[in-house]
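Structure, all two chains, one model.
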Amino acid sequence: MFEQFTDVVPSFFGWLNQGPLTLTIFLHTFIILPMFWIYSQEKKRLEQEK
Amino acid sequence: MANKSVWSDNRFWQRTAAWVTGFASILLIWLTFDTSAQISMGNDADLKNGVTKRVPGPTVINYKISYEMSTKRGHEVPYIGGNDGKGGSLFKEKEKFFGRDDYSEKEAGDLLHLGKLGSQAKNCMDCHTLMGNGAYYAPDLTKAWLDPAWGPEGSMQAVTGKSTKEEAMAEFLQHPELYPTHARMMPNLGITAQEAKGLVAFLKHLSSIDTNGFPRNFGKIQGALNGK
């Protein structure tokens, strides 16, 4: 999944985009993980309101 | 009172939307600056000092440019002034462009500027593709300079009666109707000799840009419209 960086100009996104799916998995992780946190917070709040 | 699900709760969706929008905005701003560093043009000093830039300086027209398979990167890479054998350009081997290999930064820059304006004025992209922009009615010009058809082994020098790549290309650009290469003949666009020189310089510089192997399979597809 992670391969040696071979692009001409080093960059974080260049490195992330070296293998198939690496950029996609990274972005989905960063977008979806906080959603679990938001979910649990909202759940707690709803339970307290009840 | 029935249990209220988080999934039907407004605040959950509001906060999720805010997070996704905010994250995406920051990401796009970051990518914008990341890209500008990638596409900024090098200069003559970079070429002389052997600094590899994705977009080399205009004086790259003084150098020999070759296109070779890089096993490390898995695609073809333009090498400027020879291959150093370690996956990089050597920046040593020069190549005469219209009889000279000592264009100053100003002269080369002016030629490229003329060529770029020419390519826009004559609407090359109506038929051709440059760096992924344009049409596929006529051959992709991104790596046109490296097309073997224009080289010493190719047919275009003999067809146009010229002995160098740049002269053959310039001659073709001025009188394309005299050299029909295939059924989709290029029309005569009234390109002058000086404009043709600029256009060829522009195409040579364009070919020296490292496009991460785009267009794929350049020079490998035989018999296709873009097959060289």
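Residues 22-49 of chain A form the longest helix (28 residues).
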